[in-house]
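Colleagues,

Please find the record for the two-part complex below.
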Amino acid sequence: MPDLGKYADTVLSAYAISIAILIGLVALSFWQSRQARARLTEIEARRNTAKSG
Amino acid sequence: MSIWEYANPTRFMHTSGKLLPLVTVLSLAFLLVGLVWGFFFTPDDYRQGSTVKIIYLHVPSAFLAINAWLMMLVTSLIWLIRRHHVSALAAKAAAPIGLAMTLIALITGAIWGQPMWGTYWAWDPRLTSFLILFLFYLGYMALWAAIENPDTAADLTSVLCLVGSVFALLSRYAVNFWNQGLHQGASLSLDKEENVADVFYLPLLVSIAGFVLLFIALVLLRTRTEIRIRRAGALISRERLS
């Protein structure tokens, strides 16, 4: 860890908050993507069953 | 090959599916290199001390906050003129990313401002423009959520995007228009005299590249999600009709 001197709290809090926001954004995006894909797969499977049935 | 081919959702899904893993890996690589280089391997500034290390988050996020809105402007105009749904969905997909970038820029700016300026906030032209841009992002997302018909939502949010573009541009150029306020001028410029010192400049460029690639990866991912949501909605409507 570099010696941040008297601004250590300032710099580390900026990095912590920013990285938390970025991780949250990425996690949310992946989660929403998986939800949408699962839902579409389910609807298409139901549609294919209805067509073939 | 024409870019308008990607107005076709199937074509877009096919190409974006191939691009996404590569762009994701590149963004992680550039982000890691840029932030690690900047945080661990750059010296303190003679005036700002170690707070200069915040530049590797603040400048890239501010850069993207403005350019995400401009990307939304272009895609919104394409929707209004050519009625390409993928374009409208890309604008919708970009908004939360732009919002997050604006938030990072505002928070890191406030944290940096306290030791440098003695205040977390000032009604400086650039800061005020950025706050208004943040509110426009919120309003844009709220408007999409509030309107049931997706085409109507796309129309109204496109108009909002046109209006909000004034503040996106002001956020970048306010320092030039109003020769007052706390915030400094450009950290990066085609006029090399205005740039930060070289020792900070290169890791900053790498960090910016990482943020840009992250933005591209997330826009691709989120647009694919919106396309799937739209398709699911269309299939459910057909089920109900039949």
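The mean pLDDT of chain B is 89.

Comments are welcome before we finalize the supplementary table.
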